[in-house]
Amino acid sequence: MKEWWVHVGLICIPLLAVYLHIPPPHLSPALQKWHSAGEVFHFRGREIFYRDSSGALGSSDVIILLHGFPTSSFDWNKIWEPLTQRFHRVIALDFLGFGFSDKPRPHKYSIFEQANVVEALAAHLGLSHQRVNVMSHDYGDTVALELLYRSDQNRTGHLTFNSLCLSNGGLFPETHYPRLLQRLLKDSSFLAPVLTRLTNYMLFQKGIGDVFGPYTQPTDAEFWDMWTGLRHNDGNLVLDSILQYINQRLKHRERWVGALTSTFVPLHLIYGPLDPVNPHPQFIRLYQKLVQRSTITILDEHISHYPQLEDPTGFLNAYFNFIHSF
C-alpha cells in the first residue's frame, strides 16, 4: 500500500509524544534572581508564586500586576524598579498554571478561578479593604475584568479598584485573532496531548517572535527565559487546558465587556498597534466606540503585543500620565 508511511506516522507520532519528556532548562541568573525575590502562598492546596516589593516612602498606593499568556510575572521585570519608585507596594503573581506557580493536570483552568487566586492573594497580603491599582496585560486583562465585574456589578468582589490599566488583551472576541497553535490546542481534544508534548523551543520562539514587532524582538536570553518559565513544572502540558479561556471570553462576553463599558473606575488602555492578535485599527475602533470613559495611549507604530517589554519607557510614561491624572 503506497500510503503505508502515513499509517506508520499516525501510530509513531503519538507514541513519540507520549514518551518525549525533555527536562526543563535551568533557570538563568535573571530568572533565579526573580524567583529568589518572591514567595508562595497556598490557594486550595496549590502553591502560587508572587512578588511583593516595598517601594516609595510616603505613599500608601498599591499596584497589582496581572500577566498574560503563556508567560509569567517576569513580563513586568523591565518596569518593576520604576514602579517601586512610585508605589508603596508593587505586587505581581504567577497565575495558576503559569511561571513558578503549581501547574496541576488534569485541571479545569478558568478565568473565574484565576480571579479567585488574585482575591486570595489580596486577602493574604491584607489588602481586602484597601483600594488598589491594577495593571494587566493580555490574559490578565480578562482576569481584571472578572474582578471588576465582581466589584462593580454584583458586589461580591474582595478587591476594591482605585484604577485599572489594560494592555493588548483580547477584550472583544470579534476582534481577537488567536495564533494557529492556540486554535488547535483550544479546540482539539485528540491532538492536544500530542501537540503539547511536541511543543519545543523553536516552535515557541517562532510563536512569541511573531507577536513582537520586527525592531523590538526579544534577545536570545529573553526568549529562553520565557521558555524556561513555561517549561517549569511541565507547563507546556497544561497549555490546552489554560487556552479554554478563549472559549470562556466568547461565552461570557456580555459579563466582561459589560463590566468594562459600565464602570466608573478610572480606566486606561496602553496599546501596541502592530499587534496581530488584537489588530489595529479594528480593535482600537471598537474599544473607542464601546468604552467611552477610558483614556487611551497608542504607542509607536512598531510596538506590538508585549508593549511593557518592547517599549518599557513609553509604557511607563503612558501609565504615569494616567495615574497622575486623577
Automatic annotation (TrEMBL):
Membrane topology, from the record: Multi-pass membrane protein
Cellular component, GO, one term: endoplasmic reticulum membrane
Domain AB hydrolase-1 positions: 62-312
Gene3D superfamilies linked to this entry: alpha/beta hydrolase
GO MF, any single term: monoacylglycerol lipase activity
Pfam families per the UniProt record, alphabetical: Abhydrolase_1
InterPro entries assigned to the protein according to its UniProt record, in alphabetical order: AB_hydrolase_1 (IPR000073), AB_hydrolase_fold (IPR029058), AB_hydrolase_sf (IPR050266), Epox_hydrolase-like (IPR000639)
A single BP term in Gene Ontology: acylglycerol catabolic process
Transmembrane segments: 5-22
Primary location class: endoplasmic reticulum
Keywords: Endoplasmic reticulum, Hydrolase, Membrane, Transmembrane, Transmembrane helix
Localization per record: Endoplasmic reticulum membrane
Family to which the UniProt record says this protein belongs: Belongs to the AB hydrolase superfamily.
Designated name of the protein: AB hydrolase-1 domain-containing protein
